[in-house]
User: Fold DUF349 domain-containing protein from Mariniradius sediminis.
Amino acid sequence: MSTEKEMSDEDKVTQTSEEILQVEGKATEIEPTAEIDHPEQEHEVEEEVDYSNFSKDQLLHALKELVSSGKILQIESQINQIKSHFDEVLQKEKEEALEVFVKNGGAADDFDYRLADVDRSLLAGLNEFREKKSDFLREQEKQKERNFIAKNAILDRLRELVDGEETTHSINTIKQIQDEWKKIGPVPAAQNKNLWASYNALMDRFYDNRSIYFELKELDRKKNLEHKTEICEKAEALVQLPDLKEAIRQLNDLHEEFKHVGPVPRDEQETLWTRFKTASDAVYARRKEFYEGQKEVLKENLLKKEALIKKLEEFRDYQSSKIKEWNNKTKDILAIQKEWETVGAVPRENGKDINKHFWGLFKQFFHHKNLFFKELDEIRTKNKNLAEELIQKAESLMNETDWNNTANQMIALQQEWKKIGPTPEKVRDELFTRFKTACDTFFENRRNSTKQVNKEFDNNLKEKEGVIQQIIEAAKGTGLSAAALESFINQYNAIGFVPRKNMKEIMSRFNEAVDAYVKQLGISGAEKEDFLFRLNLNKLQADPNSNRVLNKKEHGIRKQIADLENNITLWRNNLEFFAASRTADKLRNQFEEKIQKAESEVDKLKKKLSIIREF
Assistant:
């Protein structure tokens, strides 16, 4: 409990002891407000229990005992310590299990720690305490409202009794009302003072307005005096009680009892209250002395915790795309947490804010980490689905015999497979094995058909040689035309593959034959190049993917033009830096020659772009 709180409570006690309310011209005693209104508001010296060396079974046993005690708010600090040490032990076990899992060949991101029975029991016990605390506080507030209604009902009865006739029956009733009032528990703080003021005023009116019962009133006040004197003696003895926590608890009970005892003779009232307050102050002074001795230690602990918060601030907005880096930072964070838990208590006025600050930063880091792994899991799941789609496609193709088309599709699937990111570790090998099996099955089937394919390739070679011979013969005769040449080219392209060893030779012979034919047509230079380019485009139109191929070719030409134009600009800029000298003139001439060649090439490429647009 902070010193500030102690002083405010003591001042309140002093004030209420002197408070006098004038009702109908007579001084009426106001019952002193106890320092503690009801048990759940007690500020007691907490019993220190070191749970740091407790095993989980011991922590569970201690937790069950505390929860079963029913002292919800008094045990909250100990419950929090048990939770803190349980979290530390559990985290250490997780790290050790993860280390063993990784050493045995597992991947850290696939690690899944399973709680033991004692872990689940501890978590269930902590959850039970939270529910009991929540229920307890809700019920307390509801009970205060019910108590407020009940005490107002008693005040209404008391008003009727005060305004009624003076009978012996009314005296018995007033005693009954006093007993009922005393049995009713606390009310909301905002209504407490007014209730007591009304109650005391009505009680004084009852005694003062009925002279027939004056002697009984005085006798009752004397009995109350004896009772309160006994309370004072008990309070005075508490200063010698060694257990400060128990002394505070008993003093709170005595305050509650003192408040519910009726009025005493007026000439004894102030003296009696001063005596009780003095005894209370002596106990409070012991508590104040205890906390004064703790101030320096608490301040040092505050500085240590502020330094740890500063270290934790560095992780406030930490982000990374690598699992290893997250795990390394997590170790740093947990080391800071462990150091935090070794630091003792801080001044009460700082405790709530500094804990909120530290644990807010702590939770923020793990929130970011959880988001990262959640996104990673989503990505891996998405990749798993993509992989399964590719596997289905590969498995549907693995028994196809259209070797060329299927091989191209298989190779395309393999390229897509390489682009897929990581998949969940537990299914990664299985997915790869299925995909590889489908691909291997197809290519093995294709290899088994090599003999037949080679025969077909040899036939294709002979057919292409025949077409080449036809082009050569046609070039020697008359009636040459571009359409005829285009027909020869289409015929040549329609023939399938030739043996790999003959590919370059047959293509060279084909190009020579085409060049000879074109020469006989009288086409040369740039015109020849454009003519051949058009023939090539005509050939592409027979391809099912002609649009995609043409777009790709157009994109490539545009990129060449952009690169050349950038080089031309750069070279022109460089010309401005050459000084007038023989060496500089030579370099200038070289650059100008480069520029001319590049501009010529740009013109050719633009011409090709215009030809592509025709298609």
Summary: Residues 348-397 form the longest helix (50 residues).
